[in-house]
Amino acid sequence: MRGGEARGEAPALVLEGVHKSFGEEEVLKGIDLIVEPHEVVCLIGASGSGKSTLLKCVNLTEPVDSGRIVVDGEEITAPGVNVNRVRQKIGIVFQAFNLFPHMTVIQNITLAPREVLKKSRKEAEGRALELLERFGLLDKRDEYPDRLSGGQQQRVAIVRALAMRPSVMLLDEVTSALDPELVAEVLGVIRELAGEGMTMLIATHEMGFARDIASRVCFLDEGRILEQGPPEKIFSSPENPRTRRFLQRIIAAGRL
Amino acid sequence: MTTRGTGPADSLEPSPGRGSKMLGGQAVLVSSVSTILFFAVIALVAVLAPGSEIVAERFFDPFHLKQSLLGTESEPSVAGAFLLNVYIFTISEVLILILALIIAVVRGIPGPVFFPFRMVAIAYTDLFRGIPLILVLYIIGFGVPGLGLAGVSYLSDVTYGIIALVLVYSAYVAEVYRAGIESVHVSQNAAARSLGLSRWQSLRFVVLPQAVRRVIPPLLNDFIGLQKDTALVSVLGSIEAVRAAQIYGASQFNYASYVVAALLFVLITIPLARLTDRLIARDKRRRQAGAVA
Ligand SMILES: Nc1ncnc2c1ncn2[C@@H]1O[C@H](COP(=O)(O)OP(=O)(O)O)[C@@H](O)[C@H]1O
Ligand SMILES: [Mg+2]
Q1: Helix B52-60 crosses helix B256-292 at what angle (to 10 degrees)?
Q2: Does pTM surpass 0.90?
Q3: B196: nearest CB among A112, A148, A179
């Protein structure tokens, strides 16, 4: 478990008793979670269990009702925190890519570094080209997003987040909108990031991938983390009966 | 599964010649014959109609057409006066584009602090879309000078005309902008904000560029209306094309000057109209291409 090696370093991400409701419906019912630097934590659980909401709370897209979230030692849920500055440290990639359709690939990637980090055009493009090259997208630099396949678009979206040099990456079912044959290229990128030691919190339906890549798997059920542990343990001998039932359904559906 | 962007890149290209196929050799022939017949019938009706000679003399007399276009010692040239329309139109258009954008943006700023600003923007659009332009012209052009206020009460008639046009048209154009802004999916703003862009930066770099692109056709449409409405500024006493035509008609008892003015308006409207058509067609092609992918 890679996370265990990070002795002495402060946790990359801490959630303490995070509650979140939408109207009457309580979606997160007290989430406690610690992600160590370089750890890859996969969130699994049925649709509607609160995975996306959890990631949105960490990104401050949704305000939490109670509880604390600490990133790199700084409490981001404290009142008066500069939301824009916090978000620079947290990269998030969505299921629906959300590239800016009126900008080329390179413009998509360099917008935030230039406007938010105030990097020069040269510097921002240098970094962008480096990332594009690494992920095999260099020849797409001047294309508009609608000229790219879904897999390429999602890889560009990941590169766009990486260009801000975030300390944590949040990925929300980044392969769910892709045709099956395009899933592998995106998972390959994530695998490479994990290999480099990027700290990641990943909501996913790809159980095989989670088993493969995760240093830890958390099973989310109705807004609670019911069980967590190393993937070998969760996938082969889960303790909680609900985890077991969830995995049985997944296996029955042929997805593990 | 996925709804967009996963098809091979070349499927996004509109198939070439889709339009020209419709106008093959035989189709061109048919459309030519039908065009000639159509206009021949109209010409025949016009010539055979009782009083057609009087019409020809009063409206289409070549001498008067030319003389009203160029003007005489005592009557202003319609063409020269038309330059005033072009001037009013050009200045107004630039000011409208800016003012309307400000109103549309203010109307969209969330948060309780901005409530009064939103109210002002809403009241503004309600008010100026409701009042007939000619009334606004009277109120501004005759009312404001009557106030005797230093700075605003001693401007030229043309300036009051421009102010009235800008006030009324900005209300319409602000709504056009607003529709464009609201047509940009919220996920675009969410993606921009998640990268650390401020609300203003997201608006400026992500939302507005997409919004404006989408509303260019309806925007041009409004400007065609504006071009014509510059004629109303004449109620304040400015001698623009319509007023000049009126002066000519009244003293020469001939209406060729009106025809000249009409042709001048049509002449500057056509390029805008064709540009609008082209942009709409381009948009439609894009949307179809998107649906295919
Ligand atoms: N913006 C929202 N407004 C109201 N309800 C929401 C909103 N977002 C999510 N929910 C509800 O919260 C629950 C959890 O959703 P979500 O976090 O998207 O789950 P998951 O990602 O695990 O499928 C669902 O019941 C969903 O309907
Ligand atoms: Mg989700």
Answers
A1: 90
A2: no
A3: A112
